[in-house]
């Protein structure tokens, strides 16, 4: 049998882990089960990644990269600021409808990472990456359209992502297409208002 290098095995094992855990959940993602999914020895997983947590970290990074790439492709280049935000939200929402299992897996991995110290950095990197790319898209849209932001781009990005995460969880738990569309429109309207300075931020006492 031809030797396969660790560099070649790495993406194969990541895909196998994603396929397995998408079907059966994070709890089913043992190194033995992932190895069986690809049809290799369990030792191959440990040789390539070291530990199960290292493989999980790679899975989170891959899912994040895929999501970020889709988000970046969704940004229109010739629309006004409001239309750009709406198109961005609509395109991102389509990925929820088309890939609900990916969002479910990311949610499960995030909850698992919260209780796994060795994955805490991967979790911060995942959310930080999403915030960074969304902030960049907000800034780019404002600069391209000459729109003066009423709040810092990162504040707008975090506000949007918090609302979007909530809508995603509702879709996974209690899907309702009509209600979700209305809620998404309300979220976009609130984001645009915040970006235009027409939505005042209320001072919240520190906990």
TrEMBL record:
Gene3D superfamilies according to UniProt: Homeodomain-like, Tetracycline Repressor, domain 2
Coiled-coil intervals: none
Chain ranges passing through the membrane: none
Superkingdom to which the source organism belongs: Bacteria
Keyword Isomerase: no
Domain annotation HTH tetR-type: ranges: 7-67
DNA-binding region boundaries: 30-49
UniProt keyword list: DNA-binding, Transcription, Transcription regulation
One of the Pfam families matching this protein, by short name: TetR_C_31
Keyword presence, DNA damage: no
PANTHER family named among the record's database cross-references: HTH-TYPE TRANSCRIPTIONAL REGULATOR BETI, HTH-TYPE TRANSCRIPTIONAL REGULATOR RUTR
Name the UniProt record assigns to this protein: HTH tetR-type domain-containing protein
Organism: Streptomyces longisporus
Source taxonomy: Bacteria, Bacillati, Actinomycetota, Actinomycetes, Kitasatosporales
């Amino acid at each position: 049998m031809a030797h396969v290098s660790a560099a070649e095995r790495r993406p194969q094992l990541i895909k196998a882990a994603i396929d397995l855990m998408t079907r059966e959940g994070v709890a089913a993602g043992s190194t033995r089960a992932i190895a069986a999914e690809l049809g290799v020895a369990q030792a191959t997983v440990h040789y390539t990644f070291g530990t199960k947590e290292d493989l999980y970290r790679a899975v989170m990074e891959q899912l994040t990269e895929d999501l970020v790439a889709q988000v970046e492709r969704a940004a229109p280049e010739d629309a006004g600021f409001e239309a750009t935000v709406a198109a961005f939200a609509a395109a991102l929402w389509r990925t929820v409808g088309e890939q609900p299992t990916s969002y479910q897996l990311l949610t499960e991995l995030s909850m698992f990472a919260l209780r796994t110290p060795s994955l805490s950095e991967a979790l911060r990197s995942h959310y930080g990456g999403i915030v960074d790319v969304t902030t960049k898209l907000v800034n780019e849209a404002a600069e391209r359209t000459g729109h003066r932001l009423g709040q810092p781009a990162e504040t707008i990005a975090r506000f949007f992502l918090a609302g979007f995460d909530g809508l995603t969880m509702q879709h996974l738990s209690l899907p309702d297409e009509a209600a979700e569309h209305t809620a998404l429109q309300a979220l976009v309207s609130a984001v645009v208002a915040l970006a235009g300075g027409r939505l005042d931020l209320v001072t919240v006492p520190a906990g």
